[in-house]
Design goal:
The protein is mainly alpha-helical. About 50% of the residues lie in helices and about 5% in strands. It has a two-stranded antiparallel ribbon with strand order 1-2.
């Protein structure tokens, strides 16, 4: 897709900033091997296009970095980038080489270009991301909660932490929601079809 190369370059720049963290290069290689650059961000909602997950992940990391000086100035950039870039790792694979989304070959008027792969591990999405990332990287308590609960009150698991969400969790959640429902949606309204995310 035109414009995806720009996002890949931004991804590479962000990844370079955290490449000294033990396991980051291995995690990135694993996700890229299994389709991080081509996976959609959803089945039929935000960025349900090839490369959608990459665009969304970079957007969340960039926005979280912009919010950090105001909301959480003491958080290391490395932590914010790591959580922003990989919070949706489970949308690539379930950690056992099964793709999360499959192309809907019968795509038509139902407007669902991708389908949920029923062969994958049936486990909570965000917590599955945590499991995948933890295979490669030793995470802090703050990082673990931010990844596992970045969906906020939109999922039942929020009940686990609703009385004690860590600041990093809220930062990543805000960046995720703003990217998904404001930045990405506004771009979609301005452009047509599969080219609508060219300038993100």
């Amino acid at each position: 897709m035109i414009g995806l190369e720009k996002t890949k370059n931004e991804y590479s720049e962000l990844l370079q900033r955290i490449s000294n963290r033990h396991g980051v290069k291995e995690l990135a290689a694993y996700l890229e091997k299994h389709g991080f650059f081509t996976a959609p961000a959803s089945t039929k909602y935000h960025l349900c296009i090839e490369g959608g997950l990459l665009i969304h992940s970079v957007s969340v990391a960039k926005l979280a970095l912009k919010l950090k000086p105001v909301l959480l100035p003491d958080a290391p950039d490395e932590t914010v980038i790591l959580c922003g870039l990989f919070h949706d790792a489970h949308k690539v694979t379930d950690g056992f080489s099964n793709k999360t989304y499959l192309k809907n070959e019968g795509y038509g008027s139902e407007r669902q270009p991708y389908l949920w792969n029923k062969e994958q591990l049936n486990f909570s999405g965000a917590q599955k991301s945590l499991l995948i990332i933890s295979k490669f990287i030793g995470l802090s308590r703050d990082e673990m909660q931010a990844i596992a609960y970045h969906d906020g009150p939109y999922v039942p698991s929020w009940e686990d932490i609703k009385n004690d969400p860590y600041p990093l969790t809220l930062l990543i959640h805000y960046a995720d929601m703003w990217s998904c429902w404001i930045l990405e949606r506004n771009k979609a309204r301005l452009m047509e079809g599969k080219k609508f995310m060219e300038d993100v």
